[in-house]
Amino acid sequence: MSKRDVMVCVTGQKNCERLIREGAQIAAIREVGVHVVHVAHEGERFMGSAENEAEALEYLLRRSNDVGADMTVLHAKDPKGALCEYAQRNRIGCVVLGVAPGPDALAFARALEAKLPGVEICPVMA
User: Fold this and answer.
1) pTM above 0.85, yes or no
2) Which of 2, 5, 35 lies closest to 119, judged by CA?
3) Which pLDDT score is estimated for 90?
4) d(CA 100, CA 106)
5) How far apart are the first and last CA of the chain?
6) d(Cα 22, Cα 36) in Å, to the nearest integer?
């Protein structure tokens, strides 16, 4: 079986740098590539606000480049579906994503896990 890459899901927050580093470490151990992906809801700005968008994109791109990762930014009506489609198209074996504390903290991770059988989901607590 061929090796499968790592996908890191990021938002426009600078603390996503930690997720990128975590994904890069997993990829290095597995000797695979790493993909950094951000999905914005269709019709919305990529990073939420115009004033921070260019700065946030540039920051995340630099952090991705620092670890040898490709960065992809997508627009989609269904961000979860877009992430799953990307994972399937790009032979992803592990998905790293941030998780905020709270009662529904792992809901998104579990939803991805249900849609991506055989793909390891690695939630990282914020």
Assistant:
1) yes
2) 5
3) 96
4) 8
5) 33
6) 11
